[in-house]
Redox-sensing transcriptional repressor Rex
Amino acid sequence: MERKEISKAVISRLPRYYRYLGELIEEGVERISSNELSARMKVTASQIRQDLNNFGGFGQQGYGYNVKYLYSEIARILGIDQQHNLIIIGAGNLGQAIANYTNFERRGFVIKGMFDINPKLIGLVIRGIEVRSVDDLEHFIRENEIQIAALTIPKTKAPEIAQRLVNAGIKAIWNFAHTDLVVPEGVVVENVHLSESLMRLSYRVCSMYDQEPEKIK
């Protein structure tokens, strides 16, 4: 049976559903309708139903959604019901911030190692993880069954390191470097451009100001 192609827009909304459902569980809510979820998330009820229908629906007419069940199903769809071993390439401020963010482990992403080329950073211990030299990269990946690598390095170094990661068997790269990586088919890249996000925010702020009515003097 051919697997249904799910749009990127739908996939991008799943983590948000997961977060809101987690909050509902903490509040002790057992079931919720698409209309009630819509009011919380500011997404139309029809959009919620359409998104979830891509994966089977999960709701019952007149009942709504079982919150815990839907939460666990979305975790399964996102693949965060299993452990993913991760390494960080670049132990500067951003790399250390990622390593110190404990919430990743709650989502199944376990940071197994950190790497850098700076002798001043090699040997540093961050949340129990020792920063290693990039010379050990390939061996460490194979020995520790690493699936994901986060790149928090300058863009000039990123293509070379990305190629080494691919050659070592990495299948997913979380790319914070300010450059687009060229990787073979079968390797997934998620680009995180912080400056672009800030520029989008700037645009929205400026647009908001442009739309404000002129103040009466």
